[in-house]
Amino acid sequence: MRLRSVLLRTILLVTLALAGAHFENALAQEQQPQAAAPAPLAETPSNQAAKEIEKAKTQLASLTDSVKGNADNDDALVGLATKADELSRAVITISVNLRPRFDQIKNRLTEIGDPPKEGQPAEAQIVTDERNALAAERAQINAVTGDAENLSIAVTKLLNEIIEMRRQLFADTLFKRTEISVSVLDDAVGAFVHEVSEFSQALSSWTSFVWKFKRFPLFAAIFLSLASALILVSGSYRLFGSYLLRDEAIENPSYIGRLSIAFWSTLIRTLALSVLLVTSFFFLNSFNVLRPDIAPIIGALFAAIGLVYFVGRFVNAIFAPNEPHWRLVRLSNLGARSIGYCLLAMAVVNALDYLFGTIGEAMGSPLVLTVVRSLIAALIIGMILIVASFGKPMLARNGDPDAPGRHWPRGMAIILRVVGAGLIVSALTGYVGLARFVATQLIITGAVVATMYVGLLSGKAISRQEMFGDTFFARFLTRRFNLGPVAIDQAGLLVGLAIYAVALLVGIPLILLLWGFHVQDLQLIAYRLFTEVRLGGISISLLGICTGILLFAGVYLLTRWLQRWLDGNVMARSHVDLGVRNSVKTGIGYLGVGIAAIIGVSAAGIDLSSFALVASALSVGIGFGLQNIVSNFVSGLILLVERPFKVGDHVVSGTAEGIVKRISVRATEIETFRKQSIIVPNSELINGLVGNWTHRNRIGRSEIPVSVSYDADPQKVMDILLELTAKIPLVMRNPEPHVEFLRFGPYSLDFELRFFLADMGDGMTVRNNLRIEILRRFKAEGIEIPLPQSDLTIHREAPPVLAGAGRDKAPSQENPKDTPVEEDERPVRQLRSRTAEGSLKS
């Protein structure tokens, strides 16, 4: 116990001593002045951009070393070119992202102003510090931007070097010369025997392995690939069945029918087989059925099958060996078959050459075997071309396809012989690579170009006026959507453009791939085409433009929907005046179009500030030639806001009188009572006198003039008119109707019946009914409505009598003009007549 107490005391004393020491140290530290801890540096956009630029420089150095190490590998150079392009876009993005911050700094420095000059009052220290910090950051941004520009130039230079390397590799491959001798042929025979032996062993071991261990994945891959191809084929036949099969019952098919079947049958069936082959290879490889040494051979086999099938479909579609009435070229039956067989034979030779070359690469065969195989293929194709040039494939002059044909056109025969001889000479002189490339492009590229040409011809034929209406698809559209001839003709134009697009989008990438381009090259070209097209100093993005158009269309459709919803659900239920509804709809429409235009232009990547120059130029034009347009525009806005008249009002403006049908920002449409539409510029309605019968309300006064004879009782007439008016329900009682005794006319007593209507639109009907009732009542009461009458006096003077002889002469019966008449005798006849409606009755 005593030992335990001693230990406890010792531990307590030590603890107190340590605590006291710690307290003294803390107190001393509090009494000493503490130095300010360094504040961490703020991460500014320029600092972050500088780090990204340094990282990009490191990537550029790595890419440069990789390019130098893979100068003879085209596939590796393609991948490096893609990475270099991505790096170039990243560097440009860094520079672009700094632009907003640079503009902010520039604006802020403008607000702060220059430092005070000598003799001026000193500014606050905080302002000086801010100016210095902003100036330093601006200098850093300028330095980073300069580094970015230099780095972008370096990346562009590297891309150009890669392109030049690939071009040189392609040229070296084509123009590489190999010595052709008997010893080379002997070596090739020995290598071929060895290759056949190794390939047999590899194929046998693979098939036995697959059958034992990969049987289910093999069947699954075959089933899935067949299902994919069947789906495509069935869908194609369902949609394009009439364009895939020739109707033998049609003896004289139209040109457009022949073109359509040739193009679509070749394209769709080839695509169906391509889907089958590609999906088969994909599923076999995904299920680990293919070994690394067998996979390229199976891929080459599928490619060879696809090539031969495509050429076969092309030959059948264009030459139609057994159906001359469907043939697209003027060839005899024998000529069509012979040319078709020649093309198919060349396709088979090229396909076998490619397949055997792939087998040789997989089996590790020597280069001499590949050279000899290509030599044999080039010689066979060259001889086929030369033999074909001596044929007589052209259609006879009488047009009979069974008759013996005529020779090739002289130019065509010479071209075939020159190309065939060139292939043979190139192969025998050692330029086997060039001969093989030319032979391959003759078959594949020729077939692709011919198919594209047929597709373009089909689109052109369908686009012609009144040509699309005879097709099956046009008849389907007519039945399904009840379209008229004009709409069908416009649809034909769209279908023709779609066929153009299909032919070009399928054919051009295939040709580029055949001529040495890689898939990465096509992706890069497509990316640049849709994201960055430079015209001088202007960068245009097709993808951005398409996005802007879609956004504009979307906002515009939304605006139209909002207009209809407000008009039909909100304002109609609230019984808002028709003119107010029209003004609201028009205002929302113009606002929506403006917003849609701004959104579309911004999404297209067009800087709105670039329109400042255009606006300044337009301001000059507005001051001269566009002042009337602007005046009408402003007047239209005033009419929509102030609403001196609205849609549905009865207005009188100059010589135009009628009902307002539409008010736009440029002009107002007025429909007369004869259903004639008059377009009045808004400035004339603002600056001129406009009478509005229904401005504040539709109440209006209507008048009916009535005339009676002098024999009628005026008071009775007035009572009858008021009595008849009181029976009309549409006539207002307050103000009440009244009759004015206007005047004592020349032949009648003139009255005027005046009454008010709640709606001026009913005036014509009310006045017509009242006139009928007034006429009927006056006849019943014996009140006469007088006709206009006047007195007409006709004076005719006798001709003067000649003095002298002949006064006593008897009047001549033959010449009544000789009848003597006394000078003071003036026969006068008075005629009292009545006139009615402008006619004279005597």
Q: Which consecutive residue ranges, at least 5 long each, have pLDDT under 50?
A: 1-41, 803-842
Oligomer class: single chain
Structural class: alpha+beta
Shape: extended
As laid out across the biggest beta sheet, the strand order is 6-5-4-3-7
- Number of helical segments? 22
Strand segment count: 13
Determine the mean pLDDT.
78
The total domain count is 5
Terminal residue distance: 167 Å
Strand proportion, as a percent range, falls in 5-15%
Membrane topology: Multi-pass membrane protein
Main location: membrane
Pfam families: MS_channel_2nd (PF00924), MS_channel_3rd (PF21082)
Region (Disordered): 797-842
Q: Your description of this structure?
A:
The structure is a single chain. This protein is 64% helix and 9% strand. It has 842 residues and is an alpha+beta fold. The strands form four sheets. Strands 6-5-4-3-7 form a five-stranded antiparallel β-sheet. It has a three-stranded antiparallel β-sheet with strand order 8-10-9, covered by helices on one side. Strands 11-12-13 form a three-stranded antiparallel β-sheet, with no helix packed on it. α11 runs antiparallel to α12. A hairpin with a 3-residue loop joins β4 (656-663) and β5 (667-671). GO terms for molecular function: mechanosensitive monoatomic ion channel activity. Keywords: Cell membrane, Membrane, Signal, Transmembrane, Transmembrane helix.
